[in-house]
Automatic annotation (TrEMBL):
It comes from the Bacteria. Pfam families: CP_ATPgrasp_2. The lineage of its organism: Bacteria, Pseudomonadati, Pseudomonadota, Alphaproteobacteria, Rhodobacterales. Residues 71-447 form the Circularly permuted ATP-grasp type domain. This is Putative circularly permuted ATP-grasp superfamily protein. InterPro entries: ATP-dep_Glu-Cys_Ligase-2, CP_ATPgrasp_2, UCP005522.
Length: 472
């Protein structure tokens, strides 16, 4: 009987072309050697400090993310299509943000309901009427993709605020190159190590008009207790910029300044890795100690650029997600290259009724949820869990959307017995500034538990290196 999921390495005719270079590699690898290499990989990750934390749990707050050594491979033509679709989507999302914080033409045209935007908790009235440099609101867009067939990809969700995980994309490659250098010598694997340079160039390209010299770019972190702190320090180091906390910055006059041992230094661009609510206690949450008092006044007066912009989160709301294909048609006049997953909005009574009647077959997600939390995977849940979730849904239907359970593709993954298919997704990182760019690859997350569809590291998932075979 045929496997119900698309296997990215083997299809009905046998071994798929992108994986030919790996067939002999994994078949000729003794189990003892594989165990040695797996231990070497874990040692490298620990030495590099590549860890993550799960809030609210006891035990080790800095744990290693499971790493699978079997890479995921895309052919050059597969990647070309994905790249076009990702860039198209990033441009449309930014056009939407620029529009809804200005005239709201897409709402006036009746293409998106006004309430969905203006009553959205991620919509920041503090930036209404403000146009950031180059009109870019979301400078780093993480597009989560799933595959269901040889030519079928779906966008699962958009991440327009502070998408995480790019450090794993870079370090997965570094570890694989150190452990299996011959694979890269023998095959044309497109490099990803230019990401930091592209990111810095993107950030510098959106410096405010008041900047009259080489821009001073900093990365603003909540601090070492944050689950992604390793990534913050890693990226700052790669870009050669300062890693700062809120207490390292202050506002004086029309500008934001950084405290240094040589005196104050003017800051032009802030790559922020903290949420909107904590950016400025004078504008958002007054109890926040993570941000910079008065920062929003400087931002709105053109003294500093914040990347991604406050308010960008309204574009990655899971209810707004359903309208992204319409954004592409409205703003770009193009047909969407990448499809959305069919989605039911539980705020709509008729769609809510369908979802309630079919909970056991659907995936239901919180509109603002992330990390695999606050969701129901109906086919993998027992009756009691479904009943509990049904009560939450009935109490606050507008907080949820629902989608069918997709037959996610599988990728070969090392397990105790050898290799086995495991479900995967992909998060490429699209950079938007003066240009729209992305490196050939992304973060492949893998559901290590047999049969599981949840790939989030906080829910037991792991990561793989993602290869794009370069053009001849």
């Amino acid at each position: 009987m045929a496997e119900p999921f698309f296997n990215e390495m083997y299809d009905a005719s046998g071994l798929r072309a992108p994986y030919r270079m790996l067939e002999g590699w994994h078949r000729n690898m003794p189990a003892e050697f594989r165990a040695i290499k797996q231990a070497e990989a874990e040692d490298l990750f620990r030495r590099y400090g590549i860890t993550f934390a799960v809030y609210g749990e006891g035990g080790d707050p800095d744990r290693l993310i499971p790493f699978d050594m079997f890479p995921r491979v895309f052919a050059a033509d597969e990647w070309r299509r994905l790249e076009r679709g990702i860039k198209q989507r990033a441009r449309a999302l930014n056009a939407f943000l620029s529009d809804v914080y200005d005239r709201g033409e897409i709402i006036r045209a009746g293409r998106i309901p006004a309430d969905l935007v203006y009553r959205n908790e991620a919509y920041e009235i503090a930036v209404a009427g403000f146009r950031p440099p180059l009109g870019v609101f979301s400078h780093i867009v993480g597009i989560d993709l799933v595959r269901t067939g040889a030519d079928q990809f779906y966008v699962l969700e958009d991440n327009c605020r502070t998408p995480s995980g790019v450090s794993y994309m870079l370090e997965n490659r570094e570890v694989m190159m150190r452990m299996f250098p011959h694979l890269f010598q023998e095959n044309r694997v497109a490099p990803v190590d230019g990401y930091a340079g592209l990111l810095k160039r993107t950030l510098a390209s959106v410096a405010p008009a008041k900047c009259d010299r080489d821009p001073c770019v900093v990365l603003l972190t909540p601090g070492h207790f944050n689950s992604a702190y390793y990534e913050h320090s890693f990226l700052a180091d790669l870009m050669g910029i300062e890693l700062v906390e809120g207490q390292d910055l202050f506002v004086d006059g029309d500008f934001c300044w950084m405290r240094t041992t040589e005196g104050p230094k003017k800051v032009d661009v802030i790559y922020r890795r903290i949420d909107d609510a904590f950016l400025d206690p004078l504008c958002f949450r007054p109890e926040s100690t993570l941000g910079v008092p008065g920062l929003m006044n400087v931002y709105r007066s053109g003294g500093v650029t914040i990347c991604s912009a406050p308010g960008a989160g309204v574009a990655d709301d899971k209810a707004i997600y359903t309208y992204v294909p319409e954004m592409i048609r409205f703003y770009l006049g193009e047909a969407p290259i990448l499809e959305n997953v069919p989605t039911w909005q539980c705020a709509k009574p008729d769609e809510l009724k369908y979802v309630q009647e079919n909970l056991a077959e659907l995936v239901v997600k919180e509109v603002h949820g992330s990390g695999g939390y606050g969701m129901l995977v109906g086919p993998k849940s027992d009756k009691a869990t479904i009943a509990t979730f049904a009560a939450k849904l009935a109490a606050n239907p507008s907080n949820y959307i629902a989608q069918p359970t997709l037959a996610l593709s599988t990728c070969p993954t090392f397990v105790n017995e050898g290799i086995a298919p495991r479900h995967v997704d992909l998060r490429p990182y699209c950079l938007v500034g003066r240009d729209v760019e992305l490196v050939p690859g992304g973060l492949t997350r893998v559901a290590l538990t047999d049969g599981s569809l949840v790939v989030n590291s906080s829910q037991g998932g792991g990561v793989k290196d993602t290869w794009v075979i370069a053009e001849e």
